[in-house]
Sequence to fold (231 residues):
Amino acid sequence: MKTKNTHELLLYRDGLMLILNKPAGIPVHAGPKGGPNMEDYFPDLQFGLPNPPGLAHRLDRDTSGCLILGRHRQALRKLGNLFMQGQITKTYWAVVEGIPAEPKGTIDKPLRKKTSDTRSWWMEIHEEGQHAVTDYEVLGSADGISWLALYPKTGRTHQIRVHLASLGCPIIGDPVYGNKEMNLTRKGPPMQLHARAVKVPLYEKKEPILTEAPPPEYMQVFLNACGYKAA
Fold:
């Protein structure tokens, strides 16, 4: 992603908030090893304000879609409170291996971080972990894959990815919780997880702001096979 294209990612803008369509493959902020990240491009999104916007939440490196930014400290504080109170509704789309046993359901399984000598860290389901809840709905299926809508009720790290794997329906292209044989070859498709929409009740006397991000091109083949038709 180049700075000159940053504005093309903009889905919504007002005095308090920006919503971007984050590309997959780039982290939202620099990790311990540094490297390119979304925050590198925030100075291009000041739109006349004295400071760049800041992250109101995070998405995984390999997840695309709606990313909310606060334009200044007060905005970030307000957005942070809305997230903490569970008032911001997030909808994800995923294409998974297999078909869930039920067309709709709730996955209520606690998660904790685990480390080992052979790999850095990952998340696992464990009774001593943090409370984690994800609602899901099957939107379409074909040839052994399914297109799901996910509605996370909590915001744990890798929550949707681990929860879907626990159903026996891992996300296609997931490098950690997905098909191990495909991951070893590194020839599989990008991870098929997309932050499709956010609904933000930012202003008390106005309707919540609903913003949708179109799915990336690499998901189109899988989505179309499951019955998706772009508007």
